[in-house]
């Protein structure tokens, strides 16, 4: 028997794609193929080679190749889609829906042609709608198409809570539900620091500020960067999903999953707590919500549905 390394392809070699490629390689989750459009063939190969040349110093064994030829992605175990346009100051994620949905269709066709058995992870915005399109276009079982938003949104929430309490981020656990937009639903009631409900540790007005800052977390970075959007925390987040799959970890993490009645919604990709392992989304966890939480989720779902209407 010969044991082979896993293969992870990352489509889009921009800020999030390149950063994800390096993080995945650094964790030795498999060999990495970084792909972008033919006009960027040279720069994509250059980025991949540059990362590979960091491997002796950083101490990881993973091959990284850059390409614009989908044949090089053949038989990938996991494909991460970051291809598309990022927003600039003054734009909402939904402003990207038309242009990025066309890119999703074109990319998915090629991904599926060369890796019919892979799992696909979607980062491109507006990510709930883009995950829906990729799922539809791929024809894959729904557990094999996963979108990323909740790990990032929760990470922002955890960062702000840890800063406020002056404690380790590792001890803060949070959970954000809903679409990846300004109406996302950080669930304060399900958030803890060292096992203690954070509602016992912070006054309501401070928690309200943290919830609001979390909702606008993407915009805060967009405004600071001036010409693009966040990429370090998003790449770390998608890498966590890749790791959960490759190592079959059965992690309980919020991802964008296909709902068939869960939380009262049908035929929709939405951010919910899931169990992620070797089969992708192995389970959706349904939580008891208060009436206020249900109303907040409904508002968030409505903005996702409005994206979906766009796509018909
Ligand atoms: N879901 C999430 O949590 C997050 C989503 N995003 C989204 O991820 C996407 C990528 O963001 P960045 O990497 O910062 O953008 P970027 O502009 O740095 O990179 C995007 C890359 O996609 C490539 N591309 C465009 N069309 C392509 C095609 N048909 N095939 C292959 N590659 C193609 C571009 O050439 C470019 O290199 C954006 O839509 C952004 O909004 C970003 C951060 C977090
Ligand atoms: O804000 C954006 O456009 C990128 C993104 O989704 C995030 O950083 O949460």
Can you put this structure into words, describing what you see?
By secondary structure, this protein is of the alpha/beta class. The protein has two domains: 7-148, NAD(P)-binding Rossmann-like Domain (Rossmann fold); 150-310, Lactate dehydrogenase/glycoside hydrolase, family 4, C-terminal (L-2-Hydroxyisocaproate Dehydrogenase, Chain A, domain 2). It is built from nine helices and 14 strands. A six-stranded parallel beta sheet has the order 3-2-1-4-5-6, sandwiched between helices. Helix 1 (15-26) crosses helix 8. The radius of gyration is 19 Å and the shape is globular. It starts with 6 loop residues before the first strand and ends with a helix. The relative contact order is 0.13. The model has no long low-confidence stretch (mean pLDDT 96). Bound molecules: 1,4-dihydronicotinamide adenine dinucleotide and oxaloacetate ion (OAA). 1,4-dihydronicotinamide adenine dinucleotide binds next to helix 1 and helix 3. Residues 87, 93, 125, 152, 180, 217-218, 221-222, 229-230, 234 line the site of oxaloacetate ion (OAA).
Question: Helices and strands in order, then pairings?
Answer:
Elements: E1 7-11, H1 15-26, E2 31-35, H2 41-58, E3 64-67, E4 78-81, H3 97-114, E5 119-122, H4 127-138, E6 145-147, H5 150-165, E7 172-173, E8 176-177, E9 185-186, E10 192-193, E11 196-197, H6 204-215, H7 217-225, H8 232-246, E12 251-260, E13 266-277, E14 280-284, H9 291-310
Parallel strand pairs: 1-2, 1-4, 2-3, 4-5, 5-6
Antiparallel strand pairs: 7-10, 8-9, 10-11, 12-13, 13-14
Helix pairs in contact: 1-2, 1-8, 3-4, 5-6
The site of oxaloacetate ion has 12 residues, from helix 7.
